[in-house]
Amino acid sequence: xxxxxxxxxxxxxxxxxxxxxxxxxxxxxxxxxxxxxxxxxxxxxxxxxxxxxxxxxxxxxxxxxxxxxxxxxxxxxxxxxxxxxxxxxxxxxxxxxxxxxxxxxxxxxxxxxxxxxxxxxxxxxxxxxxxxxxxxxxxxxxxxxxxxxxxxxxxxxxxxxxxxxxxxxxxxxxxxxxxxxxxxxxxxxxxxxxxxx
Length: 197
Description:
This protein is an alpha+beta fold. It has helices spanning 42-50, 60-67, 124-132, 184-196, and strands spanning 18-20, 55-58, 74-76, 84-92, 108-115, 119-121, 136-140, 152-156, 162-165. The strands form two sheets. It has a seven-stranded mixed beta sheet with strand order 1-2-9-8-7-4-5, covered by helices on one side. Strand 8 and strand 9 form a beta hairpin. The longest helix is centred in the C-terminal third of the chain and has 13 residues, at 184-196. The two termini are 13 Å apart.
């Protein structure tokens, strides 16, 4: 079991899973995640993820995973060029990942979207491949609030161990501090997956 990792660290300290959190990476002056993907810790994270380490990227963490080519596509400015900060409903499309196994397929959950550059985009061939291979993890229910292609809120790599999600599940883990507990399933799912190994 590992502990906290810092962007300047080398080595993953025995981590069983890694969460790349949201936040404004280097002020987002360049493409989101474009500089952070070169952080020293990424030199160890990328090969570990390619070897099966469960990795979850949330918001800016999702952007970093795309910039590091662990996930396809890119995140761009929201439609209307406005920052969005509100609760959204997403539908779980793929519950076969270590991060989503605790959800039912097609289950709708409420999480919090907080981003200015959160619209998921990819070329047509990539989108078709994601659909055909079942790599769309979640979609915005009722349409994308940020202009994401095909209402995509989350995707996974072909192996299913790396997941990127734009809305924040960690802001929906307890009714006391968020809109409910719907996001907790991302974290309880990975704990169960690790225990089952």
